[in-house]
Amino acid sequence: LDPSYPKERLAFILEDTQTPVLLTQEKLVENLPPHQAQVICLDLLLEENTQNNQENPVNQTTLDNLIYVIYTSGSTGQPKGVMIPHRGICNQLHWRQTTFRLTDADKVLLTISFSFDPSVWQIFWPLCFGGQLIIPRPGGHQDAAYLVEAIAEPAITVLALVPSILRVLLEEKGIENCRLLRHVTCGGEALPVELIERFFAQLNLDNVLHNCYGPTEASIDTTFWTCQRGSNYTIAPIGRPITNAQIYILDENLQPVPVGESGELYIGGIGLARGYLNRPELTKEKFIIDPFSSQEGARLYRTGDLARYNSDGNVEFVGRIDH
Question: Where are its TM segments located (predicted)?
Fold first, then answer.
């Protein structure tokens, strides 16, 4: 729950989840909407000299238990609670580590509110694999001048940005001091080729910028493409699937479309959400039986996105079906 959200949205989420326990800070309690949850202020707990048991409880969590519910904006305006199991996030983190190899010298800057799912890898990738997590001041991720300083001074090496923020940063004074970056992820918006070329021109960093694609319903990122200098693309591809993910581009009859033709993008694999909280009909509509899998219970997620295969095997995002 982002404290900056409107009270109506917070109230809806608390009611929809029937949250039994709410972890927060004392200063935020008075701004909460009416709710039934037991409130625990973590800052007060730290101040209390309690004689609590110092032993960690036995971990009985399984890969199929939920790790979180994150709310996305619905087309009707009502938020949808996406239920993500541990399995998908474990896969996401292991894919990142296998592909990009974080070390104890890496510093990851948190650049998004924790109410959005990219924050999950930004927080837990360094914490799970020995890197350093750098948390900016509240609201700092929206201040371009501050962000450039926050990247340059502690020598940030890992960064995630939406393309529109990357564009602003590349125009900011001091961006030339950010050349220790070795892993920059773009996602959430289309990445223009012109912006890729500007990145190379400003920072002169090869094999660092990655265009990623993935809906919340598929545990963060599903595909990625490492941006290349002077490529012949007019639209930056979203690339190929990550480990244990499948991509299908299908027509209205769930048949694969030819290379170069547009179709709806479907996602399969172990990263899929359990579904939408308290929305069984929507879950049934968006998560369908996988007609291409022999595995019992295998499903596909209908993204509502149009895409096509390029001749080199990379996927290109075309747009939304409903636009």
Answer: none
